[in-house]
Design brief:
The protein contains 8 helices and 9 strands. The protein is α/β, with parallel strands linked by helices. It is globular, with a radius of gyration of 17 Å.
Length: 223
């Protein structure tokens, strides 16, 4: 089943089992993010990717520059393991991890809140307060009137206090070439939609063919 089909099923199940007021609150939050124009402001293809160095789920520090020394990087921002839509994307990326590696890329996830160790097949870095997400211009603060709806979706109530606990990233996935330039940018204020891993693999294949023209495969480049 495609990631989109899984997300669609999750969306239907959530709407069927959740109070209409919570569903309306989440839809209002998405509408507010659209109106704020956050997607237009986010880092785009053609820009240089902001560098970072963060602690991983293994306890080690990982830097983007070191990963780029080995090849392209697939960078995905997650809201946290509490979000059922993030969990579906994490599982889909974990399943695609070996193919992403075969295409010469490193897969890195960033989240302000903990991610379960079951997704440890690829690097997941801690981004408390969304400091790196803010550098990619995909961070936002959940407005107070929408916070009860996020709690209904699964946001941990024990984490709901503190100055930066309501700062979250938009769902966003970037492919960064070895020169540090973003060649694909996927950002959507709708938390129920994500980039298909098959599209990531296709973009990486294009990138690899462009870097190795002797392969004999002709591509027009990434869109």
């Amino acid at each position: 089943m495609s990631l989109k089909a899984q997300l669609d099923a999750c969306r239907r199940a959530f709407r069927a089992s959740t109070l209409p007021s919570a569903v309306a609150g989440l839809e209002g939050s998405v509408a507010g993010l659209v109106q704020a124009g956050l997607v237009r402001q986010a880092v785009k293809a053609g820009e240089r990717a902001p560098l970072f160095r963060l602690r991983s789920n293994t306890g080690n520090f990982v830097g983007l520059s070191e990963a780029l020394n080995r090849g392209p990087v697939v960078l995905s921002f997650f809201r946290g393991g509490w979000c059922p839509f993030c969990r579906l994307e994490l599982r889909a990326l974990a399943e695609a991890h070996s193919e992403i590696e075969r295409l010469g890329a490193t897969l890195i996830g960033l989240s302000p809140l903990p991610i379960a160790d079951s997704y440890a097949s690829f690097l997941i870095l801690s981004d408390p307060g969304c400091r790196i997400a803010a550098r990619y211009r995909v961070a936002f603060t959940v407005a107070p009137q929408f916070r009860p709806a996020y709690l209904a979706l699964g946001y941990p109530e024990r984490l709901a206090k503190g100055p930066d606990r309501w700062v979250l990233p938009l769902p966003a996935t970037y492919i960064i070439d070895q020169n540090g330039i973003v060649v694909l940018s996927y950002v959507d204020p709708d938390y129920t939609t994500r980039l298909e891993p098959t599209e990531i693999a296709l973009a990486l294949a294009h990138l690899r063919a462009r870097a190795n023209p002797s392969s004999g495969i002709q591509h027009s480049g990434l869109e």
